[in-house]
Write a structure and sequence with these properties.
By secondary structure, the protein is α/β, with parallel strands linked by helices. The protein is built from five helices and five strands; from the N terminus they run βαβαββααβα. The protein has one domain: Rossmann fold (3-Layer(aba) Sandwich), CATH 3.40.50.1450. 37% of the residues lie in helices and 18% in strands. The chain has a five-stranded mixed sheet, with helices on both faces. It starts with a strand and ends in a 10-residue tail after the last helix.
């Protein structure tokens, strides 16, 4: 059995640090990753992401997004929503237009069957502006490292399930 993973960047590059997820996925697209990992920048296209989640058959999805939780700007977190669902996993003020359609569409169409994790970064500002603040820009590398660790853990799971050697970014 091969696992399928989607790494989905979410955010609006015209709202400062809300472009965090877009920047992380832009950089990941330049890396060599296992064939069972798909990286995509969905930006503010929540409905398209919902359809991808429903149609793609992903066992694990990493949503990469800015996420306000009252921490120091640039703080990176790995969030696993509990039974309360995705809406409660992201702070209410960060459930902007791109996330609203995603959650509503998933719920209306029967929900997503795979596991979802959120790689979130505390923003410094999300007003109209272009570019990330310094603390969030510095957090991009940390988020990529965290994502690589998740991929490595998943590669070990794939290897156990298939009896094959783990294939990571380093081994192809």
């Amino acid at each position: 059995m091969s696992r399928r993973m989607l790494i989905a960047g979410i955010g609006n590059v015209f709202r400062g640090d809300d472009g965090f997820g877009v920047e992380v996925t832009r950089r990941l697209l330049m890396e060599e990753l296992p064939g069972w990992v798909r990286v995509a920048d969905f930006g503010i296209q929540g409905v398209q992401l919902a359809h991808e989640l429903l149609d793609g058959g992903y066992e694990l999805t990493l949503l990469v997004d800015s996420s306000r939780h009252g921490r120091t700007p640039g703080t990176v977190s790995l969030i696993e929503p509990d039974g309360k669902g995705l809406e409660q996993a992201l702070a209410p003020e960060m459930q902007g237009s791109q996330r609203g359609p995603l959650f509503k569409t998933l719920k209306r169409l029967g929900g997503h069957r795979g596991r979802i994790l959120i790689v979130g970064c505390e923003p410094a500002h999300t007003e109209e502006s272009f570019g990330l603040s310094q603390p969030v820009e510095e957090a991009v590398k940390e988020a990529i490292g965290l994502i690589r660790n998740v991929i490595q853990r998943e590669a070990k799971t794939v290897a156990r399930e298939t009896g094959a050697a783990p294939r990571t970014a380093a081994t192809g």
